[in-house]
Amino acid sequence: MPKAKLITIALALILVLALHVISTRRVSTILVSGSTSVEPLMCVWAYAYSRIKPDVRIDVYGGGSGKGILQVGSGVVELGAHSRPILDEDPPFNNVTIALANDAVLIVVNKKMPLIGVTRKALQAIFNYPPQEYPVETWIRVLLDDKPVDVKVTIERGHEGLIFMRSNLVNLTLRPYIRSEASGTAETLAAFLYGSWKAKWSGLQGMGVSGNEGMRRAVEEDDIAIGFLAKAIFNPARMRALLIMVWNGTMLIPYNGYDYDSTTGVPTDESIAKGAQGMALIKEHGRVPGGYPIARELYVSLNLDALEGRIPKYIADFLTWCLTEGQEFVELVGYVRLNEEQVSKGLELVEAHCSCGGEDM
Amino acid sequence: MKSRTDLLMDRMFKLISSSLAILVIIMFTLMMGYIVYNSLPAMAKLGVRLLTDPWLPANEKYGLAPSIIATLAISLLTMTFVIPLSLLFSIYVVFYCSSKVRDAIRVLVEILAGIPSVVYGAWGLYFLVPLINQYIGPMIGSSLGRWIPIFSFIPSATGNVLSASLVLTVMVLPIVVFSEVEFLLSVPKDYIEASLAIGATKWQMVKTVALPVAFPGIMTGLVLGFGRAVGETMAVSMVCGPSMPPKSPISIFSPSTPITTLILMNIGSLSPGFFEWNVLFSASLLLLLISSAGVLFSAKMKKGLRLVRARNISYVPHGRLAVMEESLARCLMIVSCAIVIGVLFLILAIFLVKGLTALVKLGPQLIYECLRLMPMDGGIGFRGGLLNDIIGSLLLSSLALLFALPIGIMTGIYLVEYSRRGFIPAFIRYSCNIMTFIPSIVYGVVGFSVFVVSLKAITGGISLLSGALTMSLMIFPYVARSTEEALLTVPSSIKEAVYALGGRKYHAIVVALKQSSPTLVAASLVALLRAMSESAPVILTAGPSYYPPSDLWSPIGNLAARIYLLGMEYSKYEGALDYMYASCLIILFLILILDVVARLISRRLRRYVI
Which of the residues A133, B155, B348, B578 has the least number of beta carbons within 10 Å of its own beta carbon? Predict the structure, then answer.
């Protein structure tokens, strides 16, 4: 018995000692929780920032935008990350919300598919969201003998979710793919199709694939696939980004007149930033001049009440860093950098609420 | 002998155990109250439409029927696999094989029962789902599926009802076999020998004596398995598809969204102000109703089948039929044993090979560095080790056990010694049963709003303490029920001896506890492993953090949650799968060590057993 007791005591001592050694380094900790879309970006930032400022520890958890808003609202974490704006249903709190990056969703098809442009109405019919009455009549832009032609088609939904686009000129069959897990990408597209952020749960319909990677593979391998992807995963060799267009009475023109790369169809970063900043997604018809409509900002929020009214310096420093030097990591994670206007707006917000010059920590 | 301190101790014991038992009732009522309170707005507004509508949140329609059907389909299919396999397997283990083989198999099964569900989920996601979609699905679809619609194959890249049930089968099987073996072993030897003595073949003996006698126990095990199958969240979400929006599965190959998955996938983007939040809580209430129906059904079955024992039995000893039956049964048993052990070894082998490969690739830093997601050329990826998660897992589970043990054991004592019959003990038993069926994600949400938000001043918000408290809520019902069962097996003669020597009730209880200590150690091990393997509550209450904790009030890492995150959300980043396999291997290794430690302790304690 004494032996067993000795061993137990020794083990306990070792544990306490280990914990003590680990905990001796005094650091200021910033807890970040929320959107799984922001999580990887935050993780990378946390790592890169710890290289510059070893005395600040940033701990990142995912869980979803709602969780982030809830947790920052109840003062459990310092920063709540969310990829949707704070809505009326969310718990009210004295928040400062700063955009840290832009996220854009591309509608993609296999390169063999002769489709190059679609309207919002066509997308609603393809993904049956919100649920549609078929047949749907709309315009699409297709390649006929390598020339872009605008044609009016009727869209029908057939067996196993296949989509048929028919007119006297073209006869296309598409297989829509959706993300089977809850994903920010699908949510973004759903919000665009629905017209507001009321669409909290994407109800897009199609064949389920898992992850951005699954979607990429599906679109690369299936000739009749249509899906949606984050911009960073786009592979120009095997797929084409569809143009989002509107019918102006005589021809199809890009939505909001946004700029795009004419060979791949991918919108330019500037048009994405414009669309995101103008919150094209939550405007009923996404009307933001020059803005790509399926784009959103990724945010973090702070709860001023929990921070005694001012943003502590170590948090303000981190946010400033994210908005400036940190931006170089944004593309690595798959998002689009902020434009200058967004950056200066963020910096102003941080500065206005910062307790700079005050005591550190 | 009857000193004042003894009297005081006796009173204290009674007071503590009764008050802890009442605490259990309060906790259960709070828990249920929380779920009901949160689901009321949805129930009131939608009423029956909660069941009849389709699931179209965009049109304000929140029908849960597709998810309920998916849950039922998956768990019933699971039970169709589990019941024959587990019964044949445990009969073989108990009555047919040698005692050495039996011991080896028992160790194996015990270890397997402790493997976190996410490990099985990872196996399902990376091995089973591709296998089904590429080979099994087309094969069955083109043969059976031509005539029978539920076998028709829909080509897809995601999981489906079948893969979810198979993963659940593998997960639930050890739990069920574990209890079946226990109960078959507890069939009195005289019954068995009497039956064999009058000329029954072994199979006849099993069929007419062992199975009916052990039936109530077997049912308990099956219901436990059913509850796990219904309430499992993480592993199922990894392999069930899921279809968004949920659709009723029409074939065993259709993607589906069972209730737990529906909750898990949507709750993160909501906060309590949303109407949808209430809808999800009504969903979990429905899930509880399904589980309680299972419990009630088994109770009825137990009562109904008591009669079997009284039936007259006539054997035709060594008739041709009996011999044929015997050999057929043996054949089936050997086949099912081969399947069970084969599949389990396959899983272990996969994780051993993949895990060791990852271990070699990642190097020794795995155990002394913390995980980090960092920029690399051409993207981002994981580097470092899993120290934060290993420490976090160990601390969280041991702390949770530390909280759960006193409550659980005292409640068990209360149920056996102080109040065996009546409303309160029945209610406690009922609440413990129901609490084992509440899906872990609901525990997570309750733990979040109670420990993380309301009690932030004490628990420090997202922290080891909040996580451990939430986890202890999950495991104490199991501890309580096991304590009760263990104490009931202590022969009354021992207690009588204590009283005859002038001991008080608490002396008797202490003796009884010592008598049942090996069983209690085994139960604590199971509880500990359960706390180590749950991931959903951790994600909501304790992290998982990328750093080791500095004190009780700081967030922690967690292996099980990490496996889920690496396998599902982060699988696209470089190194994620290597770290996932390494985490799986480490957690298997930890289970092995804990099992050995528990065995050693249990052997030491065995000397108290008369």
Answer: A133
Confidence of residue A359 (pLDDT cuts 50, 70, 90): very low
**Minimal C-alpha gap between A199 and chain B (Å):** 6
Q: Which of A44-53, A210-219, B247-256, B408-417 has the lowest mean pLDDT?
A: A210-219
Q: Does B58 contact chain A (CB < 8 Å)?
A: yes
B372 interfacial to chain A (CB closer than 8 Å): yes
ipTM score assigned to the predicted complex: 0.82
Q: How far apart are CA B70 and CA B245, in angstroms?
A: 12
Percentage of residues in chain B having pLDDT higher than 90: 23
Quick: pLDDT tens for B46-76. 888 888 888 877 777 888 888 999 999 999 9
**Average pLDDT in chain A:** 85
Helix (H, G, I), strand (E, B) or coil at A301: strand
**How many CB pairs below 8 Å do chains A and B form together?**
187
Mutation for B interface: A47, A61, A65, A217, most B CBs within 10 A: A61
**CB neighbour burial string for B2-14, b if at least 16 within 10 angstroms, e if fewer:** eeeeeeebbeebb
DSSP category for residue A311? B
- How many separate helices (H) and strands (E) can be counted in chain A? 10, 15
Under the banding of pLDDT at 50, 70 and 90, the label for residue A360 is very low
Round to whole Å and give the CA distance between B82 and A7. 42
Portions of chain B given CATH number 1.10.3720.10: 2-48+365-606, 76-313+322-362
Is A204 within 8 Å of B543 when comparing Cβ atoms?
no
State the fold for domain B2-48+365-606.
MetI-like fold (1.10.3720)
Q: How far is CA A262 from CA A145, A231, B334, in A?
A: 18, 16, 66
Domains of chain A: 27-102+297-353 (3.40.190.10), 105-295 (3.40.190.10)
CA distances (Å), origin B423, targets A59, A271, B14, B60, B407: 48, 69, 18, 43, 20
Per-residue confidence (pLDDT) for residue B147, from 0 to 100: 87
**CB pair distance less than 8 Å for A63 and B244:** no
Of B606, B608, B445, B607, nearest to B540 (Cα)? Answer: B445
The fraction of chain A above a pLDDT of 70, given in percent, is: 91
More confident residue, A165 or B435: A165
| Chain A environment of B551 (Cβ under 8 Å) | 19, 23
Q: Which of residues 166-225 of B touch A (CB under 8 A)?
A: none
**Chain B residues whose beta carbon lies within 8 Å of the beta carbon of residue A44:** 373-375, 380
**Chosen from A17, A24, A52, A67 to mutate, greatest number of chain B CBs within 10 A:** A67
The residue behind tokens 């009825």 is B300
User: What does the CA dihedral B25, B30, B33, B35 come to, rounded to 10 degrees?
Assistant: -110
B-chain residue closest to A71, CA distance? B453
Contact B39, B282 (CB under 8 A): yes
Task: Report pLDDT digits (tens) over A60-80.
Answer: 888 888 888 888 988 888 999
Give percent above pLDDT 90 in chain A: 35
Instruction: Judge whether residue B191 has pLDDT over 90.
Output: no
- pLDDT tens-digit series, residues B575-607: 889 999 999 999 989 988 998 898 899 888 888
* Pick from B56, B242, B271: CB nearest A203: B56
Q: Does residue A25 surpass a pLDDT of 60?
A: no
Cβ contacts of B572 on chain A, cutoff 8 Å: 211-213
Whether the pLDDT of residue B363 is over 90: the answer is: no
Q: Do B156 and A329 touch (CB under 8 A)?
A: no
DSSP state of A339: -
Cross-chain residue pair B545–A59, CB shorter than 8 Å: yes
CB-CB neighbors (< 8 A) of A202 in chain B: 244
Residue in B with minimal Cα distance to A190: B58
